[in-house]
Amino acid sequence: MFSGISSLFSNPMGFLTELLYRIPLVLVALSFHEWAHAYAAYRLGDPTARNLGRMTINPFAHIDPMGFLTLVLFRFGWAKPVPISTRYLKNPRKDELIVSLAGVTTNLLLAFVSMGIFYAFVFTTGVNEMGWQIFTTFFFLNVSLCVFNLLPIPPLDGYHVAQCLFLRSSNGYRFFSFLDQYGYIILLVLLFSGVLSTIMSPMVDGIVYAMQSVYNGIFNLVGLL
To answer: Which of 92, 102, 109, 215 could, after both became Cys, cross-link 36 (CB 3.0–4.6 A)?
Structure first.
């Protein structure tokens, strides 16, 4: 469900057609994710990201070439990490945790809103094939980004969350130093081996089911189902 690379070889024209609407959606999802990090940091007293031009939804301020490529090909990836200066934060460990979770929370909200809009169209005016592709692609992009970024591997948000929660002992420092050194390699191996899809699928499916249950309940309540 997540990997688009197989279609590059089995159906090149279909893959290229999908990219025409997929790439803008990828850029929107990534941009809001990174803007959320920068905005959360700014609200907590750290102006570093804003001063460096990262508190923006301009995608060119956030693109990491390798992360963008894997997002297009495998449907999950990453952007350039937003810089944070903990010296500006009143409660560094707690505030850094909030900043780290801001991006995935924003992707989760974007997914929830996009599913709501999709439901509204389906049960009122209807949605054509292209509209269905756009809404479902944007929805799954954001859910996948949310789950993917929670993995405790650098440069993902989950790594910083794990540091905030568990970086308290000498063993912890050694473990995180190892991840700092080999995180990108581990991430690429998981991506290209397909292991990451196996790990993420149950979590993504759980989020999809939960959101569908909410909207089914809402539309049942208003008598549209």
So the answer is: 102
Tell me how far apart the alpha carbons of residues 89 and 215 are, in angstroms, rounded to a whole number. Answer: 38
Q: Which residues participate in catalysis according to the annotation? A: 34
pTM above 0.70, yes or no: yes
* Cα distances (angstroms) measured from residue 28 to each of 89, 103, 166, 183, 218: 28, 13, 32, 26, 27
Number of Cβ within 10 Å of residue 35's Cβ equals 22
Number of other residues whose CB lies within 10 A of the CB of residue 67: 21
Residue 153 main-chain phi, psi, to 5 deg? -130, 130
Pair 48, 83: CB distance under 8 Å: yes
Domain coordinates in residue numbering, the chain: 5-221
pLDDT in tens, 90-141: 999 899 999 999 999 999 999 999 999 998 888 788 778 888 888 898 999 9
In whole angstroms, what separates CA 191 from the centre of its chain? 15
Over the range 37-65, which residues count as b (16 or more CB within 10 Å of their CB) and which as e? bbbbbbebebebbeeeebbbeebebbbbe
Say what the alpha-carbon torsion angle 70, 198, 131, 211 is, to the nearest 10 degrees.
-120
